[in-house]
Specification:
single chain, Rossmann fold, alpha/beta
Length: 214
């Protein structure tokens, strides 16, 4: 796996303790998978936002930060505040594939968080998927990016994270083979309004999540 920017956002709401513990173990597992050279951002959103960590993977390991011991809780969380914070967490550093991990409880978010979906970051969501509300699950890049805190599939998570780390651009963009180093929109890969089947396999691979939305 190549180095990535991994942004972990914990929605620290009151829910059964075993749910929260399992979610934190999954967050720690995600961190264990990414290589040195990665940048880790960890924040907990409770009655306000608490930034726990914003440094390299190497510094994370040196500090021995334990997510399980940094918990603040609230009854409800504002969706607009969460969305703004999630967007802000991807501002730096440039040049790394950007991947998000959101952990929370469906029933405690008030408002609309579709702004997170529009950001087009590769986003994993860990949530109790038996909830009647699917607001958080819908923020994931694809249904495969939604995981349960109870029946967590570590192999599927690891494989998907490794695959997403190979995609430098956001889910609606691709990096052309030409050396200009700039991500280009998947909607127009051939220089005209043509379907994606006019492109190379590499572009199709990079635009796979965009294709699924069409």
């Amino acid at each position: 796996m190549v180095p990535v920017l991994l942004s972990i956002l914990v929605l620290a709401m009151h829910h059964p303790a075993d749910v929260f513990v399992n979610q934190m173990k999954i967050a720690e597992y995600a961190i264990s998978l990414i290589p040195n050279g990665s940048h880790i951002h960890i924040g907990i959103f409770a009655y306000k936002y608490f930034e726990l960590f914003d440094e390299s993977k190497e510094k994370y390991e040196n500090q021995m930060l334990q997510l399980l011991y940094n918990s603040n809780y609230t009854l409800y969380i504002s969706a607009s505040s969460v969305t703004l914070q999630y967007i802000h967490n991807f501002k730096i550093p440039p040049g790394l594939p950007q991947i998000g991990l959101i952990l929370g409880s469906e029933s405690r978010v008030t408002g609309d968080m579709t702004g997170i979906k529009r950001l087009k970051k590769k986003t994993f969501v860990v949530v109790d998927i038996t909830s009647p509300s699917k607001g958080l699950a819908d923020l994931a890049t694809s249904p495969d990016h939604v995981f349960s805190p109870f029946a967590f599939d570590a192999n599927r998570f690891s494989n998907l994270l490794n695959n997403d780390a190979q995609l430098l651009c956001d889910t609606d963009m691709y990096l052309p083979s030409s050396a200009n180093g700039s991500c280009q929109p998947c909607m127009n890969p051939c220089g005209a309004m043509l379907p994606l089947n006019c492109t190379t396999r590499d572009i199709q691979r990079q635009c796979k999540y965009y294709e699924k939305k069409q």
